[in-house]
Amino acid sequence: MPFRGAAMISKTGIHALRALAALARVSNGDYAGAADIAKTTGAPRNYLGKLLKTLSHAGLVESQKGKGGGFRLARDPGDMTLLDVMEPVAHVSRWNACFLGRTTCSDAAPCSLHARWGKARDAYFQFLKETTVADLAAQFVPDSHPIATEKE
After folding, report:
1. Which residues pair with 63 in a beta bridge?
2. N or C end of the chain: which has fewer CB within 10 A?
3. Number of independent structural domains in the chain
């Protein structure tokens, strides 16, 4: 059985990143409709609409109703990091917790994985802080394939 891969982020996070990468490729700050974004990214349209609303509340996208309306990025994609995107949809700051779930884990009273988890977590956060939506959009290929699930 071939390896299908597993995502390190939630489906919501993947859809958010795909949507913003697609919006970053829209020229001249034009608006793109949710149906077009859904088709480009493979996200379910209704789900994407709710996700874009969340991203709008986070200040990442703007919306306009009516003819010629839709969604567009609220700021330059080069100034928008993956951490900016992931926090409102996946709450990645919660990853600061103990890997083993201990409530008392700290530098002063570490669990058995504290130092190793801290290094891995810090490297992951550094990646999210250094990588921008512009970086993602530069390599973005429209994808209408569904995101793999654990059952596949």
Report:
1. 71
2. N
3. 1
Name the residue among 150, 118, 102, 143 with its Cα closest to residue 4. Answer: 150
Residue type, 74: A
Residue 5 in domain: no
State if pTM tops 0.90: no
**H helix count then E strand count, the chain:** 6, 2
Show the DSSP H helices in 25-104 as ranges.
34-41, 45-57, 82-90
Whether 145 is in a domain gets the answer: no
How does pLDDT run along the chain (152 residues), one tens digit per residue?
444 555 678 889 999 999 999 999 987 789 999 999 998 888 999 999 999 999 999 999 999 998 888 999 999 999 999 999 999 998 888 778 898 999 889 889 999 999 999 999 999 999 999 999 999 999 877 654 445 444 44
Task: Evaluate whether residue 1 is within a structural domain.
Answer: no
> For 26, which DSSP code?
S
User: In this structure, is residue 45 part of a structural domain?
Assistant: yes
DSSP symbol at 33: -
**CATH number for position 111:** 1.10.10.10
Range of the domain at 52: 11-138
C-alpha neighbours within 13 Å on the C-beta side of residue 113? 9
